[in-house]
Specification:
Layout lengths: L2 E10 L4 E10 L2 E6 L4 H4 L7 E5 L4 E4 L1 E6 L5 H6 L1 E2 L6 H25 L13 E6 L1 H6 L3 H12 L5 E5 L4 E4 L1 H9 L11 E3 L1 H9 L7 H17 L2 E6 L8 H12 L6 E7 L6 H18 L6 E9 L28 H13 L3 E6 L2 H18 L8 E4 L5 H10 L2 E4 L8 H11 L9 H6 L4 E3 L11 H10 L9 H7 L2 H6 L17 E4 L15 E4 L2 E5 L1
Parallel strand pairs: 1-4, 1-5, 6-12, 7-8, 8-9, 12-13, 13-14, 14-15, 15-16, 16-17, 17-18
Antiparallel strand pairs: 1-2, 2-3, 5-19, 9-10, 10-11, 19-20, 20-21
Helix pairs in contact: 3-5, 8-9, 9-10, 11-12, 12-13
Amino acid sequence: MKKTVLIHANYWDGERMCRDGRIEIADGYVGAVYGACDEQNLKPYNIEETCFEDMSGIYLFPAWIDSHLHIPGDFLFEKFGVVLTGFESLETYLDRLSTWKKQCEKQCEKQCEKQDYQDLDVAGDLWLRGFGWNAVIMDRAENGYEQLWDFLNQEFADKPVLLFSDDYHNCICNKKALDAVKRAGIAVEPDEWGLIKEKDIFLLTRYLPEMCFSESQIEMAVLAYQEKLLSYGITAVQTLMFLGGNGLREWKVLLALERKGLLKLKVNLALTVQPWEKLEESRQRYGQLMKIEKESRFYGGHIQIHTVKLYMDGVVENHTAYMEAPYEDQAGRGKNFWDLETLREFCRELDEEGHQIHIHAIGDGAVHDAVTALVYAMDRNGTARKHRHVIAHLQIASDEDIRLMGQYGIIASIQPYWFPQSEKDYGLEKPFLGERAEEEYKARTLEAMGVLITGASDSPVTPRPAPVLGIAMAGNRCQEKERLPVPAMIRAFTRNGAYQLFRERELGMIQRGFRADLVGYREAIWEQVDGDEIPAFLMVDGKIYLKN
């Protein structure tokens, strides 16, 4: 196999940009990195055994790492349902759904002719599924939920329909879907307009497999999503359970793709455990997941498992984010999904067994309980900083909890795409949070207090998981005191992410012995203000995947 040498390379060494170097690539790994590249340096190479790639005018970085997303993104709905992301009003939702109805009718005719469609409910009806409506848009529309409920029951009277919100914390069902749920004996509590929230959504996806997607559908969606991530220069991810019953379908698909040599992403899987689940069921699923990781080692080791994910709360727009003080627009502090004592003991058990714990926490009450439980676990087990526990999102967090995160080595997985860019953005949250909206997403405070920050999109909640966009938004947010400079965000999406994924010896740096996953741009990304730059070069496992 020929050695590849990238010449005249401007590359990021982890802290700064180095000029006119050369990078040797062999067998999928970086062999050596040199700081000089001229004619004299190139003479020792055997021309017949070396492929030279001129990187003049390209800025090279370690390929990006997204520390919190959901495979296969929105492609299941794009390919086998409807996507409402990007539409800005209830009227546009209804227009899109009307178009979708016509597409569904044609698809049903074809599938009935073939008689081989797998996703049928107990009554033999095709389940119709969608994603992407926004709760704020629905709240602002006059009788928004009532209008949508009437539309779905009128236009889709003979088909069960489920429409997930863009954050997956809400789901709207029509009467036909709710009837199927009732027949299945699943105890959910929809409101009068068919709206289901939080726990009830997990019950649907876990115990009503008829509405979930088939493995063949998931495989098609994963491959499409992989292409999307690679197009943004992302080659490694931490993925949390998606809509697939208990998660096994997604895991099996990933392993099948690795067997076929089609899995390009390095994927760290996380098992989601809910407080209402039986622990024994979760342990059985974790055992199955470990078998998948073990087999993956024979096919390149793209799949790893270290992590258990817990949900502390919901989201602000649902009034389900757990707050220390009541919401501004209504009584109540939101919902804490876990009893604190139960959470503390469960975290202690997970920590003792060597698991990384990855906690979704939006409100300051949820962050406080998450920090309290993790600190308790590490104190009892003497494991501070050992297992690299993570808190994701941290929309509202106290300085004291942030200080403890730094002290105990708790990682903050942040989504800079959500940082407010204008006063208008604050305006979306102020009805719920009041002046607390001014204290959202304390990125600079996290860094100043010694918390390791990793970059993430939470895709498909973020439709466009472009790390360069995230880097730009972190540095251009309207709240100046919480801005993060470009070098800090580059680290967040590279070596810090690798550390969270337990891959810091193979990813996140351009150094000897690291995987040759590299991304390059024609423009210096620190000069970008809008983050629109797309890669001009991508190398995955030592093979050039893209070069423009």
